[in-house]
Amino acid sequence: MYDHYDALIFDMDGTLVDSGQLHEFGWSETLNKYGIPIDRPLMRSLAGVPTKATIEILLQKFNLTPTATLDEMNDFKEAWVHDNMHNFVKPTALIEVAKKYHGIKPMAIGTGAYTQEAITILGLCGLDKYIDAVVGADQVKNPKPAPDTFLRCAELLGAAPEKCVVFEDSKLGLQAAASAGMAGIDVLLVHAIENDYFL
To answer: Which residue in 5, 57, 180, 189 could disulfide with 165, CB within 3.0 to 4.6 Å?
Structure first.
């Protein structure tokens, strides 16, 4: 199905990894702690946006004066995810695509998560052996929906952007793929993979 591409690039959360509940609970704990309202449709729409940028959007949306620094709120959420990830994460059915092309085509993760978190989660899911490169939000100046994450993946894989295919579960991620000049696969429509994140 993807034989005519030179490289495969996967988003992680909600795409190659079922982690929706991990991040939903992590965000709920964080937002409750710092007095930020939980707008479920808004949170759903921000899937794939890095933690600090999400907090900034929420503070602006609700016209709030923060009760803590951005770094403190970010660190609280990241620590909660780190401490609880082993209870939640597992591969999605997309692992079959990774298995099929393992050793045949180079594959990367392009994620809004931080790189070390992504590497840890891939290891917990047994997915790390399929992935040749991991590009987290901390590696690029402009994360999704900018194309930087996926362009960096293509660079690390030694593939031309137009010969890459990106698997994504979010509108922002698909927008980033299009901006990078790459084919985008909506995993819900094509592979029936649904991210159970603030549904």
So the answer is: 5
- 3 catalytic? Reply is no
Q: Indicate if the pLDDT at residue 92 is higher than 90.
A: yes
Each residue of 146-182: pLDDT tens digit? 999 999 999 999 999 999 999 999 999 999 999 999 9
Angle at 62 between CA 60 and CA 67, to 5 degrees: 80
Residues 108 and 166 in one domain: yes
Q: Look up residue 63 and give its DSSP letter.
A: T
The model's pTM? 0.90
Among residues 3, 11, 18, 39, the one annotated as catalytic is 11
75 Cβ neighbours under 8 A, 6+ residues apart: none
* 81 & 97 share domain: no
